[in-house]
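ok so dumb question maybe but i'm new to this and my supervisor (M.) told me to 'just get the structure for HAD-IA family hydrolase' and walked off. so i did the thing. is this what she meant?? sequence i used:
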Amino acid sequence: MQNIDLIIFDWDGTLFDSVGQIVKSLQFAARKFQQPLLDEDVKSVIGLGLPEVMQRLFPQVPELHEQILKSYSQHYVENSGSDVWFDGVAELLDALKAQGKLLAVATGKSRKGLDRVLAQTQSADLFVATRAASETRSKPDPLMLQEILNVTGVPSHRALMVGDTSYDLEMAQNINMPRIGVSYGVHAVNVLEQFAPVAIVDSVEKLSEILLSIIHN
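this is what came out, is it supposed to look like this??
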């Protein structure tokens, strides 16, 4: 891998241990409006923007999308206060930052949701740029990555996308950006492999080994 100046992270399932609560909150909202879902269906859309999630999960009831989203968001906010970074993430981000790497976030969250968890983790100052799906196009469209590149002035081949879903890796592939998949989040290894990542890791420890080695390249 060539020298990397900018590392862009997905949030949920990559940095933040929140997938379980996302599934519970979407299931809660679905049951409230008599729209049963399988856990596998919910996990398959994590990473997309919320409007795209509604279109994928509830195409038969577009008139309920706004109400389901409101119920989901309320349940998530009320029950996600104990969600935290995966073990080792805080130390990894601090180490990368200390070595002069630029860090950014590209997430399927809304801006409101991202700002809430940045405040919850007191991590806003770690990132030179953040993009949420509500203010740009949803993954796998690469627009949010292009916007981050525009802000930082880093070309795509000197940036790296790290994510746990096919949407993350496809988004990076669409802009010829190197990418690493993490299999401890949502999508399985065989799904991530389809988008030619430079590596797939199954723990934050192994992710740290790869990313910290970049410092010395």
